[in-house]
Design goal:
Layout: H1 17-34, E1 37-38, E2 44-46, H2 47-54, H3 59-64, E3 66-69, E4 75-78, H4 83-92, E5 102-111, E6 123-132, H5 137-153, E7 160-165, H6 172-184, H7 192-200, H8 211-216, H9 229-244, E8 250-251, E9 263-270, E10 279-285, H10 289-292, E11 300-306, H11 307-316, E12 329-333, H12 336-351, E13 356-358, H13 365-374, E14 379-383, H14 385-390, E15 392-397, E16 403-407, H15 408-420
Parallel strand pairs: 1-5, 7-8, 12-13, 12-14
Antiparallel strand pairs: 2-4, 3-4, 5-6, 6-11, 7-9, 9-10, 10-11, 14-15, 15-16
Helix pairs in contact: 1-5, 5-9
The structure holds histidyl-adenosine monophosphate.
Histidyl-adenosine monophosphate binds next to strand 6, strand 10, strand 11 and helix 11.
Length: 421
Amino acid sequence: MLTSVPRGTKDILPDTIHQWLYLEEKIRELCAKYGFNEIRTPLFEHTELFLRGIGETTDVVEKEMYTFEDRGGRSITLRPENTASAVRAYLQNKLYADNNLTKLFYIGSMFRYDKPQAGRYREFHQFGVEAIGEQNPLMDAEVISLGADFLKELGLTDVILKINSVGCPKCRPVYREKLQAFFKDKFEHLCKDCQSRFDRNPLRILDCKNPTCKELSVGVPEITDCLCDECADHFEHLQHHLKAIGVDFVLDPRLVRGLDYYTKTAFEFKYTPLGAQSAVLGGGRYDGLIEECGGNPTPAVGFATGLERVLLALETQQLLPKNKEKCTVFIVAMGDKAKEPAFKLLHELRSKNIAALMDYAGRSMKAQMKQANKHNAQYAIILGEDEIDKQIATVRNMNDSEQMEIPFDTLIDKIIFEVNK
Ligand code: HAM
């Protein structure tokens, strides 16, 4: 117990941290280009926010939340997603006061009591964006194109964008009724979960992974046939805008997403080699959520992508970046007399912004050279008792093994010169 992480969580170790930094750098560059600003919200919120925001009949709320009572008797939940928190922060901090449109992005841990497997964890990381305050389908197209750009900039190919419209409170009841009529005769054969979804949230049946439920829903009525004029028009325009900017998509009338706040647009980017966890990025419009959380009716659209899944996808296409540790100089100090001058040199190099390391344990020359290689050092500076006596250091270029003898008083300048050559 003491030496293992809780199930479904992972350490991100120094040998892979560069992959995360790489993703974060890409995200920040991309969001700056699209005018989205970073927000960081607490890892936990009042449970009520998620009950209201995500929907009480969703799997996330019913089965997957980490909810506990704190010492003050409040019900607290580790955030299972960040849209509800972003909306809460938007309202609490009146972010609408200065702008009609607020564009936010976030990177951080989310928590769901999911069944852990490759690509599915209990603590996972999302990058997400939320554009709050714009109803024009151009906004949906911008958000989708940002998602597409993110995956494209990482070099990922064979990703399929699926889009759908899940309607609005005006037209969805019509579809609900049609769905219930369709599943009525099949009710007995549906799984237990879907039987309970039948009354409470029949759209969820379309999202069920149970093979029997999947089979039973063959030939199900399509929501896009039930859309009101406004939703149909919005969906039509969105498709038009995506085509205009060359974002390929396929229509998937069964795409309903796992959270209840969606209205109109719903979309997912799928990368099929990840199997059951093929959804690498998902989102949609949520025009009712801000009002549900106590604000004025405000349209909004966003997405989130699971960064672990993105890394898994990059791995399958050998697109993960190499670990480039930045150690320019490794000082090989031989013998006690060399240690302190070497330590001073180490300090001076760092003060001149040169990444430098040395060994303190007095290992053999061979062992220290091995360390220099392991750290990808460009140069090794060898300081032995002889060198100290003569005030001359031996500098070895680790790429071609060429050696130079450099007097101490010009050593730093020479290294700076060589490094910047
Ligand atoms: P979501 O579809 O629940 O949407 O999650 C978004 C993405 O997070 C998924 O496509 C997947 O890549 C990743 N993900 C979800 N659960 C796990 C898990 N257990 N382990 C690993 N990765 C996971 C949302 O969270 C919405 N808040 C997205 C959104 C933002 N909609 C509008 N704005």
